[in-house]
Amino acid sequence: MSPIRPENRDRYPADWPDISLRIRTHRAAGRCECHGECGRGTHTGRCPNLNGGTAYGTGSRVVLTVAHLDHTPENCDPSNLRAMCNGCHLHYDRHHHAETRARTRRAALEAAGQLSLGGTP
């Protein structure tokens, strides 16, 4: 399971560990469910990575995680959840992570009084 940032922990339901386990083990049977929606362009059809196995292309250890397709932790409808290997999940979330970093950076600059008169860092 990928780590949940402390500031987002309250956004997940109390039974999130059970939901995640059910998606990763029962529905996905320990295999990444990505069919290319991650945008990596490294596989056709379903990603071959298996939890605990060796990742194709990198040789790293595969950790199966659960992605919220709409990036909303409160939305745990099974149709919004996808078991993804760590590589597919990180790539799927790359734009969302960039936006979060930019918001965090801007908030820190605002708090420090460092924004220019035009409002951009």
Q: From the helix content, strand content and strand pairing, which structural class follows?
A: alpha+beta
Main beta sheet: strand number and arrangement?
2 strands, antiparallel
Task: Give the overall silhouette.
Answer: globular
Rg calculated over all Cα atoms? 17 Å
Quaternary form: single chain
The number of E-state strands comes to: 2
Q: State the end-to-end CA separation.
A: 35 Å
Unreliable spans are none
Count of runs of 4 or more consecutive helical residues: 3
State the share of residues found in helices, binned by percent.
25-40%
Give the strand line-up of the largest sheet: 1-2
Mean pLDDT over all positions:
85
Strand content: 5-15%
> What's the SSE pattern?
HEEHH
Number of domains: 1
Descriptive notes:
This is HNH endonuclease. The chain is an alpha+beta fold. The protein has one domain. The protein contains three helices and two strands, in the order αββαα. The chain has helices spanning 16-27, 86-92, 94-111, and strands at residues 64-68, 81-85. A two-stranded antiparallel ribbon has the order 1-2. It is globular and about 50 Å long. The relative contact order is 0.16. The model has no long low-confidence stretch (mean pLDDT 85).
